[in-house]
Amino acid sequence: MTDFRTLIRKQLDEELIYGCVVMAGDSRKDFLLEAYGFADRITAEKMKTDSIFDLASITKPVGCATLAAICQEEGLLNLDRPFTDYLPKHRASFEQPPTVRQLGAHISGLDCERPYDRFQSAGGEQLVDAFYDLGPVAPPGRNFVYSCGNYLLLGLIVESVSGRPIHALAKEKIFQVLGMGDTEWGMPRPDQLHRVVHPHLVTTHGAVALERLSEELRRYREEDSLPSDETAQGALPHRVGNAGMFSTASDLARFARMMLTETPQIFRAQTREELFRCCTPPGIHRRSFGWDMEPIGGLFSEAAIHHSGWSGQNLWIDPESGCFFIMLTNRSSTEYEACKFMRRETARAMYEFLMQHR
Hints:
Blueprint lengths: L3 H10 L3 E10 L3 E11 L4 E2 L6 E2 L4 H15 L26 H5 L19 H7 L17 H15 L3 H13 L5 E2 L29 H8 L7 H6 L9 E3 L1 H13 L7 H6 L30 E5 L3 E6 L4 E9 L4 H22 L1
Antiparallel strand pairs: 1-2, 1-9, 2-3, 4-6, 5-6, 7-8, 8-9
Helix pairs in contact: 1-11, 2-5, 2-6
């Protein structure tokens, strides 16, 4: 058995990551919470267990999909209705519009291309308005294609049916109920800036022009405390559904424990089960509404849900073992798949450690 700490040191030594926080626990207690490396390599600031990370695409399941499930429970949304029923402003033409559930499982027929990128330089509401032109490249329900566009639309749907911005709704319905006091959607609070992990990631799709940013947003960019996702950054002050949440390992543990125990409740057990139920057709990548369910080489049970984030994050929740595992990193390598593989191997070693020490 490989010790998880050995795997972490390997990633630091090979400069796949600058630092990380790892956490593991079950429905009753935390068994592991440790920090390694640097929160900011340039200033040599050490990583701490309460460091705040850009969660990137973990925003999708923890924030956006959870809010959509809550909206369904409140009678505002039907996941099995065409998504266009809830977005009258949508302009693209569909022969068969995908359902809201198909958006959430990435089987909508939307492409993974990003046509809205040409509006990055405009930013703000002009960028958000471009989401209403996202159209199909294939019929829905046939293939799995991971596309941020699905969650850009899902975020707009949640705002449309609730009449509220997604970050405000999430604070009331999720973060405050679960005691996730360090979690913010869009950018951290000013009093949190000293705890934010600085990845210094190179953008891949072109950031919004500096001169178009407000004075506040310029300061956040100078501090490297805006979302690493260019769409989430460019749309500010509008928050989007695909990325942009900032949080800590301990706050994510509160969310994971709620998913394992239903306490405290943010929705009924039946609603919670929506997020654990595979809803993709047989023979293609297994996804629930919001979460990845594809088996990881014997790691966790078939009932487990998990998700990764571009900036170097992973969250796994396994209802059969009753355990959760978190690895948050400031990824320094451009080898995304290699970094993701090492996070999985670390989680495997953490699982073995936890089974021995429970």
